[in-house]
Amino acid sequence: MHELAYVPATQVGALIQTRKVSAEEVTKLALQRISDHNPRLNAIVAMDEEAALHTAREADKEIKCGQIRGPLHGVPITVKDSFATTGLATTSGCTALKGFVPDKDAAVVSRLKQAGAVLLGKTNVSPLLMDIQTDNDIYGRTNNPWNDTRTAGGSSGGSAASVAAGLSYLDIGSDIGGSLRIPAHYCGVFSLKPTEGAVPASGHMPGFEGMADYASSRHLACYGPLTRSIEDVRAAFAIIAGSQGYAGGLPNGPQASFPSPSTSPLRVGWIDELPGYPVSSSIQEALRRFVQKLASQGILVKQITSPPFDIRAAWETWGKMIDAELNSTASIIQRGLSYLATRKVSQEVPTASMLVPLTFKNYMRVLTKREQLIRSFEQFMAGYDVLLCPVSSTTAFPHLQKTKMVGYQPIYKEPLYIDGKPQNYWIATTYYANLFNVTGSPVVTMPIGFDTDGLPIGIQCVGKRWRDYDLLNTTGVLVEACEEWQPPCALT
C-alpha cells in the first residue's frame, strides 16, 4: 500500500472507484503516515480517526452499489484550520478560539463531503492567518518536509506540508496575501488562488462576531486547493467553485465548463525580478531555465523588464484595504494609537499602510484605486495567456522568532538574506504575491525545481480574471516542461 502514498488524488480516486483498492485501505494508509511523520512535521492538528474511517467505509459501500459522486469519492483529504468543520475544532490559530467546534461545515468543506471525499483532519495555520510562518500558541510550529529546520510557509503552512509529505492527498487553504502560494512554493506543491469571488467564503474563520458569512476581509481573500498535480487542482476547483446560494462567492457562469485548449501558440510573459525588489539568484536561474525549455517547445516567451502596473500603489492599496476592513470596528483612539505606532514602518509592513482617517469617502477612493490597478493589469494581460514570476524572494528560510506585533502582523528582528544581503521580512516574503490579491487574478503556483540546498522552487502562473479554467489549461501545458513531481526523500 505504501506506494500509493504519493499517487495524485484523482489517480487514487480512480483506483478506489474501480475497486482496485478500497477507500478504507487508503484512509488507513494516510492515518498510518500521519502517525509516523506528523510528530516531526506538526502539519495536521485536529483529527477524528473513527469518523474518517466510517466515512471511508460508507464511500466503499456506495461505490460497490455503483454510486460514484466524482473523482474524489473515497479520497482522504485535509482542510486548513480556518474552515468550519462540524465536530472538529476550528481555531484559525487564535487562542480565543481554542476548542471552538462549529455546528456546520464551511461551504468548501460541505462541497467536498458531498463529492465523497474523506475528511482526515485540519491543518495548522499562523495566528489569525496573518504570517508567512506557521506557528501559534495552540498547536505550535509546523516544519518543512524537505528540511525541518525551515519554515513550511504560512498561513496555509500545515496544508502545504501535509500534501508534500504524503499525509493527505489534497488540502484546501486560503490566501489574502500569499497564504496559498508561498507555502506551495516553500514545500514544492501546486496551488490555485482562484479569481476573487470564484469560491465562496462562507464558514471561513468562524467564531468571530459578524463573520458568519464573510471571513475577516470582504475583498482580497481567496480559497483554493493545494495538491501534488495540476489534474488534482482542476478536480478540486471544479468541486468548490461557484456561489450557488452561498454568501461570499460570485456566480462564475463563464467558467461552468472546461474550455477547449487553443490551437494557437501560447504567449508567455515572464519576470524574474522587479526593480528594487531582489530575488535570489537560484530562483531567477530556475525561472530562466524553465522559460528556455518553453521556448524550445515552440511556446512564445517574452521577458518583461518593467512592472506591468504600479506595484508600489498595489502594495499600499493592499495595506489600506486590509486596514479598513479588519479595523472597521476599532475606536478613533485605538486607530490613532495604531497609526502612531506603525507610520514609521509603512514602507516595510503592508498592513501599516493605514487608511487615515477611516471614512467612507476614503474607503471608496481606495476601492477606486484598486479598480484602476485591475484595469491596468488586465490591459497588460490582453497580450499574454499567462505571466510567470517569482512567488517570493527566497526559498524556505530557517524558522524565525517574532519580537513584536504591528497591527495584525508580527515583526521579526532578523532580516531575511537574499544572496547574502539583508532584506525586510515582509517585502522578501510577500511582495510578489500580494500584488495579485489586489488585481484579483487567478494564480497557479507550480514547482519547477530546487535550489542548491535541495529546497523546492515554485513560480506564479498568473492568468486573466474569471479565466481560471483557461489558466489551468495553460499550466497543464507548461507543466510538461517540468520534471516529474517528487516527494521529500526522507518521507518516501
| Percentage of β-strand residues | 15-25%
Helix content: 25-40%
How many angstroms does the end-to-end distance come to? 12 Å
> What structural class results from the helix and strand content?
alpha+beta
* Spatial shape: globular
Got a strand count? 19
How confident is the prediction overall: mean pLDDT?
A: 90
Rg estimate, integer Å: 21 Å
Q: How is the main sheet built?
A: 11 strands, mixed
Low-confidence stretches: 331-335
- Strand arrangement within the widest β-sheet reads 1-3-2-8-10-9-18-19-13-11-12
Give me the number of helical elements.
13
Descriptive overview:
By secondary structure, the protein is α+β, with helices and mostly antiparallel strands. The protein has 13 helices and 19 strands. An 11-stranded mixed beta sheet has the order 1-3-2-8-10-9-18-19-13-11-12, with helices on both faces. A hairpin with a 2-residue loop joins strand 16 (about 415-420) and strand 17. The longest helix has 22 residues, at about 360-380. It is globular and about 55 Å long. Residues about 330-335 have low confidence and may be disordered.
Task: Please name the defining characteristics of this protein.
492 residues, alpha+beta, 11-stranded mixed sheet
Summarize the structure.
By secondary structure, this protein is of the alpha+beta class. Helices cover 34% and strands 17% of the residues. It is built from 13 helices and 19 strands.
